[in-house]
Every structure is written in structure tokens, then in C-alpha cells.
Amino acid sequence: MHLGLGELCSLLSALAWAVGVILYRQLGARLPPLQLNFLKNGLVLLMLLPAIVLLHGTTLPSFSALQIGLALASGAIGIGIADTLYFRALNELGAGRMGVLGNFYSPFVIVLGYLVLDERLSATQLGGFVLVSIGVLVAAWPKAAPGAKPAHLFRGLALGLLSVGLMAIAIVMVKRVLEAQPLLWVTGVRMVGALAGMVLVAALTRQLALLHPPTEAMPWRRLVLAAFVGQFLAMILWLAGYKYTQASVAAILNETASVFILVLAAFWLKEPLTRRGLAGVALTLTGVVVMLLP
């Protein structure tokens, strides 16, 4: 079994994101999605700045204008716009359906990687992709809830698919920049683009007031922990995965986040882990092993 740096980072990113989701689930009861997203991204940028200086010094890398533009656009599209659409779709569809819809992410990246980056998956990797996808679907497929259909199902599906598609476009467009430039610098520039994109979205939707911290008591400790683990670590590991392995492989391994969330929710939040959930976990882990076969 071959577990390279890129594959390891992709799996650890999924785990860190899953921890963040559990924390965000608890924070979501206190903060609106746009406000929560903007505050956590602002905290992440504050964490990135000293990390960049510590690891890379104050000397700016030789970014070309195109590379800076791609990194800024990737952040604005993949975090600023896509995350906003994702949260809106989440409100329309619920967590279960959005979890299933998120399974379209890796196929989008595989197609874009084929068209833009000239990447090809081996037969073994394709087999692993199928197993991971089936495992995530089995584990995350929502239970039937009679009479609980969302009011705007089709709009939610459209917004959800658009958000996932934009995330895929954003990571593929910055792949070559990641390969050529220091990881943390690219991450920092991307986060600046994300915050600028969110300000633009808030201005266009007349929600600029939501970008300020609330005046009432704020759960800062939990928010800082969620931002550090679920965004700072997760995003660096996520981008490192795309830097050190094929975008298609990284995207497939990122899908394991849904399974990590299921397992963490069972142990952390005491949510029941059903037989179907266990079967999904087993299929997903089998798919990961197949993906990593030499």
C-alpha cells in the first residue's frame, strides 16, 4: 500500500474538517451561517500571518500576477461564494441531503482534472473511487421523513450543486499555483480572496451588518478551536493534498470526511451509529485501501 504525503494530507484534512463540523454544529445554534463563516475565516487569516512569517520569513515569494489572480479568485469562488451558496442550500435541503449532494465534488474534480490538468486515474484508483462513493452514499443517505419535504427542494438542489461545482473549479484553478509556490503563502492569498468575496456577497445581499461580531456573549473559545482545527489545519492539509498528489486522488480521499463525521458524532455527540452507517464506513475504508494500492 502506498501512502504518500499528498494522500496522507488529504485523509488528515478530512478528519480535521469532520472535527470542525461537529464544533460548527454546536456554534450554528448561536450564529447565522454568513456571520459564522466570515468570523472563522477572519480568525484563520490571523492564524496564517504569524505561521507564514515563522516558516517563510517576511520575504515575498516571486508570484506572477497571474498566480496571485488565480489564488485570489480561487478563494473568492471556493470559499466566499461557494460556502455562502452551500449554507443556503443546507437550509433548504437539510444536512442529510447536502451530505449526499456533496458526493458530487470528487466527480467534478475528476472531470476538471482530466480536461484542465490532463490527469488520468488507473483502473485500481477508479475502483477505489466507486467504493468510496458508495460507502459515503450508504452512510450519509438521509432517512425517509414523511411530511418533511423542504419547501424549495429544486432551488436547494440547484444551489447545492452550484456550490459543489464552484468548489471543484476553485481547487483545480489553483492546483498549478500550489505546485509552484509555498503552501502557506498560497493559503494566505486565497484566504484574502475569500474574505473579499464574502464582503462582496454581503454587500450585494445587504447583509454587511452580519460581518461584525454580535454584541451579546460570544462563544469565542469554541469558535477559535473550530477555526483552528476545522479551517486552519483542515485547509492547509487540504491544499497540501492537492499540492503533493493528483487533484482527482485528493478529491476522492476528501470524501471520507462524511464517514469521519458519522463516527465522531457517535462517540462525541452520542448519536446512534446504525448498521447502515457501519456498512458505509466499511465500504469507504475499503475504497481508501484500494485507492492506495500500488
Automatic annotation (TrEMBL):
Keywords, in A-Z order: Membrane, Transmembrane, Transmembrane helix
Residues passing through the membrane, by range: 6-24, 36-57, 63-86, 98-117, 123-141, 153-174, 194-211, 223-241, 247-269, 276-293
Keyword Membrane included in the entry's annotation: yes
InterPro entries named in the record: AA-Vitamin_Transporters, EamA_dom, EmrE-like
One GO CC term, this protein: membrane
Domain EamA intervals: 5-139, 155-292
Pfam families: EamA
Gene3D superfamilies in UniProt: 1.10.3730.20
Membrane topology, as annotated: Multi-pass membrane protein
Entry's localization field: Membrane
Superkingdom assignment: Bacteria
Family recorded in the similarity comment: Belongs to the EamA transporter family.
Protein name (database record): DMT family transporter
Annotated source species: Arenimonas terrae
